[in-house]
Amino acid sequence: MKKRFSSIRFSYIRSHFYSTFLTTVTLLSILLSIHVLIAPAWLNVTSIFVFVLLYVILALILSFYVGFKSSGDMKERLDYLSVLITQFTNGNYTSRVFFNEEDEITRIGNELNELGEKLQNQVKSLQRMADEKSDFAKSAHKAAVIEERQRLARDLHDAVSQQLFALTMMSEAAVKQLEKKPELAKEQMQEVAIAALKAQTEMRALLLHLRPVHLSGEPLASGIKKLINELKRKSKLEFNLKIDEDLNLSETTEEHVFRIIQESLSNTLRHANATEVKLQLGHRANELFLHISDNGNGFDIDEDADRKTSYGLKTMKERSAELGGTFAVRSNVGEGTYIDIRIPF
């Protein structure tokens, strides 16, 4: 009820009532002044109050009627504007209002029509951008898949394929020397065993790359432990792990960190000839700290002769940079490799 009496229609009626009150007070003041100053016979106190009373009753009736009728058009136009705003809120930006009057409400209606047109154009732009982003994501995914396949094919050709070819040649040579020179055949078979072990290690590293990049909804700590347990079963590496269980990271950060660890362990398997790996992941002040080290062969960073190792380090550095972090690597020949990554929260 209170809300109804505060509507635009009753505001009109109240304004007419207020005008009636001011007119009544003014008229009463004039009549009383004439009665006191001039005192005509026809104007006495009784006639004044009867006249004023009749005027007030008639004025109240007319004020209510005129206020109710005159506010009808205003209320109807405001309702149109309210419906238009509701349509915009519900996402229907094609709705419009049109008024024939040349006043402020018409100007507001025209401005709302322009706003609806702009919102409609923005929605079309956003939809077009979403489609372009989807197409770009598909193209980028396809390009990434092609690039990864080419890299794996290149690695298979450069490493495993050559090692298998060498195994074939050495085993054939050993078979030929088996009866004539058994000692030489034994040495060649030992070389075959060493080459087979290298090929097996290389293949394990390549299979490690074929693991899914995503954690599939698992916490980062669980994903790393599963990866380490798998490597323990397939290699002779000893792992020294120290991982905080309460890491609260975004999904993107977890995936990048997991991929960095995966790349680092792959490099260790393929090139380090290490027996022990240390991995530490946890909070330090306002940053995430990742340390990975091994006791393997190491390499000369300045010369950087091993392009495969260089490619892996470059990938890890790029992923760290995408997260706003820093990447540092220390290594010397015969002294192992140490990688420190700091990612701010």
Written overview of the protein:
The structure is a single chain. The protein is α+β, with helices and mostly antiparallel strands and 345 residues long. It has three domains: 2-92, no CATH class; 124-210, Single alpha-helices involved in coiled-coils or other helix-helix interfaces; 215-345, Histidine kinase-like ATPase, C-terminal domain (Heat Shock Protein 90). It contains eight helices and five strands; from the N terminus they run H-H-H-H-H-H-E-H-E-E-H-E-E. It has helices at residues 2-5, 8-37, 45-89, 104-177, 182-209, 220-234, 251-272, 307-322, and strands at residues 238-243, 276-284, 287-294, 326-331, 337-344. It has a five-stranded mixed sheet with strand order 1-2-3-5-4, covered by helices on one side. Helix 4 packs antiparallel against helix 5.
- As laid out across the biggest beta sheet, the strand order is 1-2-3-5-4
CATH 4th-level superfamily of the largest domain: Histidine kinase-like ATPase, C-terminal domain
Low-confidence stretches: none
Instruction: Look at the structure and give the CATH class of the largest domain.
Output: Alpha Beta
Give the overall form.
Answer: rod-shaped
Query: What is the beta-strand fraction?
Result: 5-15%
> Over the alpha carbons, how many angstroms does the gyration radius reach?
44 Å
Provide the succession of SSEs. HHHHHHEHEEHEE
Q: Overall mean pLDDT score?
A: 77
Number of strands: 5
Derived from helix and strand composition plus strand pairing, the structural class reads alpha+beta
CATH topology of the largest domain: Heat Shock Protein 90
